[in-house]
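Example 392.
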Amino acid sequence: MSTTPNAAGLAPATLTVAAGRPARVQGGHINPPIPLSSTFVSQGVVTPDELSYARGDTDAWHPFEHALAALECRGGSDGETPGQAIVFGSGMAAIAAVFSLLPDGGTLVLPRHAYQAGMVLANEVSARHGVTLRHVDIADTDAVVAALDGADLLLVESPTNPMLEVADLPAVLGAARARGVRSVVDNTFATPLGQQPLLHGADIVLHSVTKYLAGHSDVVLGALVTRDAELATTLRGHRTLHGAIAGPFEVWLALRGLRTLALRFERAQANAAELVRRLADHPEVAEVRHPSLPGDPGHERAKAQMNGFGAIIGVRPRERAGVGPVERADAVVDAVRLWLPATSLGGVESMLERRRRWGTEAQTVPEDLLRLSVGIEDVEDLWADLDQALRA
Ligand SMILES: *Cc1c(COP(=O)(O)O)cnc(C)c1O
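Predicted structure in complex with pyridoxal-5'-phosphate:
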């Protein structure tokens, strides 16, 4: 049984530390143990909240699920509704569970720019189940609302991966709700400290826990959060039947990572904002994308609905005579010494990659766009390395 003392009144940074602890008993553990049972003592009729077999449920998941639910569901007028988090073996397993809510022949509204493997899965669901895909510019509220007519599910990413477009969350989620269209927000980039989509009317929040929540580039995990108990039962049922489950060690590491989320994310966001300011004036940079820039199309929205602007930056190097844009961007990645050339994001270590090196990335993403995931290193070291790589 995991607990959160006075959850209602606690600030998010406190919740990341205090939520999901074992019950306070003399001589008890302050951290949850890692339970390693594939099955549990049980006989006769088993009630839904009894443990019986670890593909269906295990107490290895509960402390992390409890802490994530406390973070995503904090505040709000219906603060009484506890909300539930459901951990999955990966972010993609969580996306697959959400897509399973689509009826055959149904309609999915989704961003034209979004996490690419999710887009690939949407195409597969479309081909196999006759689901109509309506791709929209998620920052164009009128276009999103128009696409909702007769739809079954709205998938939102904000800021989007990798273009960093910002959706008007209250407007698009409110419109979906008013039309009876279920909505899911991928909150991986913003984290529950950066924004709380459930407060803006989302039915489900999705996370690649792999990224900021775990935060150390050492586990692959996903999660869904919802206040709708019936929906939670359906999604949990999908996890059980498809076996999309997380291992006890990984979930323990995710909770261990979550304990420092507030510090890590604060530092990463501060580093990112400083790098963005400097990159905007850099002679070797053609374009910087980040909602912190006053001229960024998402700036005002991000200010209104987010706490901070996130720590992912888009950069296009200035072209050089005789060098193609792809070659030029690849040369910057080749030249870094501290930044890690790698895919993924949200770890303590700064990483960058040219997104279009993946054949599945949307063709409307510029070929030379570098996605930078800013970590928690000293900002001067990060700047020095980036600066020399851009000039190399
Ligand atoms: C990485 C990522 C995913 C997929 O999560 P995995 O844990 O890699 O399966 C989904 N959405 C976003 C925004 C991501 O960055």
